[in-house]
Specification:
This protein is mostly helical and about 325 residues long. It is about 70% helix and about 0% strand. The protein contains 13 helices and two strands; from the N terminus they run H-E-E-H-H-H-H-H-H-H-H-H-H-H-H. It is flat.
């Protein structure tokens, strides 16, 4: 009679050649090591993001002026917000800024990224494109504020040389938001272009070679290959830039302080005024919570419409 020997079947996913107790012990050690490395980030997130958010949600239901303890006010701040015309006007001004900033910045960044991908391999040019992003936003705002000055600015000097009247870029109601948006396009376009350029690196060159053999032009390859395969990266870039655009504050604070006639009073500047000029922290917190809800909804909608979690390469 032949003897039968039972061979233990390895657990799916367990490292080959290891017994199950050893695999579990290794898994626990890996978890402890991972927790050790992410603990500083978790601590910073809890102190600088999670706790202020929880505190802000609590203050949004109170009447708090910094000089006295918060008093519970229920939903009074949110009822006040619904009827506050200044809040909705500042939100509309912010939306105008976001539309101009995102549309121009995305188009310029895609053009720059495709040119870097198809025409040059120079690391120097990539570094030069990133330089404006490395300059502080306040410095960028001040430099462009002086350059676009109505009487002494170099921009109006050039406009005068070609026979046109000078423009009040930061002083006219219909020009102030487009001007602020274009200043921030100049600062962020290099960074956005590098993000898109990283996405272009993942597209196999064999697709372009096959398209070229079939007689496809560069323009046709861009619409049929580049843009569809770049969709997940573009979705991520759009979510990041839209959230960042809604947070525009420093350029407005340095240049116009919300003027002229509230034409550039964006939502962050309005919240700042309520909190630190009028000391109405309860109402300012309610506006902050409303803005979080709006941004969360916009981000989820973007990711769903752009199918951010799917790739046509798979």
């Amino acid at each position: 009679m032949a003897n039968t020997v039972s061979v233990p079947t390895p657990r799916p996913g367990a490292p080959a050649g290891r017994h199950e107790p050893q695999a579990r012990s290794q898994e626990r050690r890996d978890h402890r090591a991972a927790l050790f490395f992410i603990l500083p980030a978790l601590l910073g997130f809890a102190v600088f993001y999670l706790w202020p958010t929880i505190r802000g949600v609590y203050l949004s239901f109170t009447d708090y002026s910094l000089l006295a303890p918060p008093e519970w006010a229920g939903a009074a701040n949110y009822v006040k917000l619904i009827g506050d015309g200044s809040f909705w006007r500042s939100l509309a001004v912010t939306l105008e800024y976001v539309v101009i900033n995102i549309s121009v910045q995305t188009i310029v960044a895609i053009v720059l990224a495709v040119m870097m991908h198809r025409l040059t391999k120079s690391s120097f040019l990539r570094g030069v494109l990133l330089l404006p992003y490395l300059v502080a936003s306040v410095v960028v705002a001040l430099v462009w504020y002086w350059m676009a000055d109505y009487t002494l600015g170099v921009v109006n000097q050039v406009i005068g040389w070609i026979g046109l009247e000078p423009l009040g870029f930061f002083g006219e109601e219909h020009l102030v938001i487009p001007t602020i948006a274009l200043v921030n396009v100049w600062k962020h376009m290099g960074y956005t272009a590098l993000l898109i350029f990283a996405g272009l690196q993942a597209i196999p060159r064999s697709l372009y070679e096959a398209a070229s053999v079939d007689g496809s032009t560069e323009w046709r390859s861009f619409w049929r290959i580049t843009l569809p395969l770049l969709r997940p990266v573009l979705a991520m870039v759009l979510v990041i830039t839209v959230i960042g655009s809604f947070q525009i504050f420093d350029t407005v604070a340095v240049t116009t302080q919300g003027g002229p006639a509230d034409a550039s009073k964006v939502i962050y500047y309005y919240i700042f005024e309520k909190a630190f000029s009028q000391f109405d922290f309860g109402y300012a917190s309610a506006m902050g919570v409303a803005l979080i809800a709006i941004l969360a909804g916009v981000s989820l909608l973007q990711m769903r419409l752009l199918r951010a979690g799917e790739s046509d390469l798979s």
